[in-house]
Amino acid sequence: MSYYKSMKMKTEKLEEMNGEFIFTYLSYIMKKEMYFDVYEVENVGFSKMIIKNKEFTRLTLVITLENNDMIRIFNKRNAIIFFKSCKENSPGLYEDIFARSDIFGGMPGFFGLSSLRDIVENEIKRLEEEER
Fold this sequence. Notes:
By secondary structure, the protein is of the alpha+beta class. The chain contains 4 helices and 6 strands.
């Protein structure tokens, strides 16, 4: 892993309020911010995903916006915050994400869960418990 990529993973931050996001990250030496709304999201893809003991050890998302901007979220916590906001503010998008990207196909017994959605649901519950 390059030095820049490891530094970028440590310096990204996703803030959410009622479906609106501020994504702050370090681009080379300069700090950059992107503002977007959950309704501007066109596509969400899983770029890197490692599952161990029914939870993500690594999760990277690629979010495509309507204006063709792409956002890469390397931090697992930020990705779970994004999913939580989609679930609360845009259930249609939340359902669409898993309809297109459920790699397990809902096979019962795989990882002891029925689908990728169940793993994300468990991660959202863990995040809510941490925030309390």
